[in-house]
Write a structure and sequence with these properties.
Keywords: Signal. This protein is mainly α. The protein is built from 5 helices and no strands. It has one domain. It is globular.
């Protein structure tokens, strides 16, 4: 079952559109999503929001995918994962605590889009 999930997710990721001139890099996408899902999971724990268990499972799925094959540039992908986690954590904090309602809405919308991109790569 896990191999089917991994194969399907890799194919889905490889078939995803990229920016003009950019080479598809599934490792980078999974590293980015692992970081984003880590930030979301921690945020859910801190504010007591529902869904942390689902987020943890999805995050683990991304990590499992990253560990199935050696990354072409492990340090670069780890840096990408850490950066993605940091950026989404800041966005989630802004969505929660910004003084302006407009800023909170914009941050929430951006965070929701970023997470939706990652959740679209998973089956569950």
């Amino acid at each position: 079952m896990r191999k089917i999930f991994i194969s399907y997710t890799l194919l889905t990721c490889l078939g995803a559109p990229v920016h003009a001139g950019e080479t598809p890099d599934p490792y980078a996408r999974f590293a980015t999503c692992a970081g984003r899902l880590s930030a979301l999971m921690e945020h859910q724990w801190l504010i007591g929001a529902a869904g942390a268990d689902l987020t943890r499972a999805q995050r683990q799925g991304m990590i499992d995918l990253l560990e199935t094959a050696p990354a072409p540039n492990p340090k670069q992908h780890l840096a990408r994962r850490i950066e993605a986690k940091h950026l989404l954590a800041r966005m989630l904090l802004h969505a929660e605590f910004a003084t302006s309602a407009r800023d909170r809405r914009m941050a929430r919308s951006g965070a929701d889009r970023a997470i939706a991109e990652c959740r679209a790569l998973t089956l569950g």
